[in-house]
User: Fold this.
Amino acid sequence: MTHQLSFRGVTVAAEPGQSVAAALIAAGITDWRTTGKGGRPRGLFCGIGVCFDCLITVDGIPDQRACLVAAADGMRLGDAEPGADVEPGADFEEAGRTGGEDVARA
Assistant:
């Protein structure tokens, strides 16, 4: 069964077992965030969770490594909600997570 994800209003298909980054790349989306300084595009770089170039907001939770998060049906990907001033890692503390875990999906 193919999963359907939403990236900034665009539907992206993902195969079971595929990471969010792999699904975005397969859909032709090569960058999904910009750097704080200079606004340079960033997307997949190492692909194994070592760097942090592939950070993305997943279902409203910022700073997820797209290469480590398994794609799941109905995921919303992209920017945090407009106007949300969220410090990196702030939501992780509230949820009792550190940000290094893979997000389990049913």
In short: The two ends are 14 Å apart (CA to CA). The chain is about 10% helix and 25% strand. The first strand starts at residue 3 and ends at 7.
